[in-house]
Amino acid sequence: MELDSIYTQLIMEHNRSGHNKKTMEGPDIIEKGHNPSCGDDISLELKLDGDIIKDAAFTGVGCAISQASTSMMIDLIKGKDIQEALDLVNTFIGMIKKEISDEKELEKLEDAIAFKNISNMPARVKCAVLSWHTLKEALAQR
Ligand SMILES: [Zn+2]
Fold it and tell me: How much is the pLDDT for 3?
């Protein structure tokens, strides 16, 4: 089974726009993520204001899925506090593992719901979860 076309379109749009793909001045945290099975490499930068993720950006190379997933995640976590961001990571990973299927719960993921059926393409799962795992590592540092 393929991803629905509307979801494919969302992934392509995020991949093309690159609005979150940049470096920032003086990030508080830089965390690198690597997915050797595909060759995806990302560097996630976060700026914090207390517990709030004030800004986030990334650089790196990789397939459309890893790049789009990172960009969607950044849109989602900007302005959230650390606990909210970690909850979103758990919801995303729960969705990928098909442990969470409640539509209301998944709505919180906004565009990232596009990856709902990625587990039907097992080779791409690591691409989709890379940035979310990287975020979790980043937030565990502080
Ligand atoms: Zn990939």
Answer: 65
